[in-house]
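Case study B.
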Amino acid sequence: MKPQISQMEPWLGSEERKAVNKYLQQGGWLTEFKKTKEFESAIADYTGARYAAVVPNGTLALAGALMAAGIKRGDEVIVPDYTMIASANAIVLAGATPVFVDIDPETLCLDLQLASKAVTKRTRALMLVTINGRFPAMEDAVALARKHKLFLLEDAAQSLGSFYRGRHLGTFGDAGILSFSAPKIITTGQGGAILTDSKKLYEAVLHIKDFGRQKSGVDYHEAMGYNLKFTDIQAVVGIEQFKKLSWRVARKKQIYGLYAKLLGGVKGITLIPTDLESTSPWFVDILVAKTKRKPLMEFLKREGVGTRPFYPAIHIQPPYRWVKGKFPVSEQMAGRGLWLPSSSFLKDRDIRGVAASIQKFFHE
Ligand SMILES: Cc1ncc(COP(=O)(O)O)c(C=O)c1O
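Model:
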């Protein structure tokens, strides 16, 4: 049975429906054109990136950015062991080798000191995942990349609406990416964007997006490329979703704040330090004892509340069993973390209800 309160649902309204109808009545070609440009401008304006190129999803945004930077077979890319598996898979897709590094327990992001030790002669890039809108000291990440001449790619798939010292996450590196998949703060069903200030990198991305074509409509291919194009029909949805972003960012912060107030004192629950000035938590996350997570999830399911456990540590997932090394923090967090209902449309009374169920579980 579907829980009465899902862990996460996309939120579309009559504005998106009307905009899609209007677009279809006008008879566009569906594929990327003027609406995609308008969506890209909205992304660039909001994030402050000089260029934004939209692509079919966040995974291809990561792979496309790496390819555009010339990352290839034989190159190593440092990536955290705790992230959505797409971060690592995109490195493999670009032909390179992911090198896993443990995370910092305070931020759940890459441990920069360990990352520094993982640099070898083959390291070409550093992928920093600002997971759930949290971040390490970004200037240290930039300094580490500069010191070793690494391409800094920020996986900001979960960070739309999150800033570090007033600057949007995803704009500190040589490139950053966003995702607009269905559970994200705003969605186009699937979708991703590559952000950069570099004209050279942006032009390389455009080549990769369009089969390496010299220019649109000309079948002369001056570079290796694929098809990473978007569609105007998704862009129409994205433009309407974007108009709702600022409100949703504020609401995500309120939702997290209310949960934190209601659950902060519950014995058995640990909250992850969260600076709500800067971070717009995409998912509300808590840590519980490993042995309590499954019983809590089952109890909440019976109460009609959907939850989702954190991603498993990547090195234990079947495609990465070849990985050697120890990742104690990643393993611990992955085993303890739980995502609570986090949709932007949740009412305060919904959150109070979820919190009451959680309190009941720990006090019974
Ligand atoms: C951190 C992170 N990176 C990459 C991705 C991949 O994005 P997409 O699902 O748009 O391919 C996700 C998706 O949730 C993500 O959370």
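The pocket of pyridoxal-5'-phosphate is lined by residues 57-59, 83-84, 86-87, 129, 155, 157-158, 179, 181, 192 (CB under 6 Å). The remaining cases will be described in the next quarterly update.
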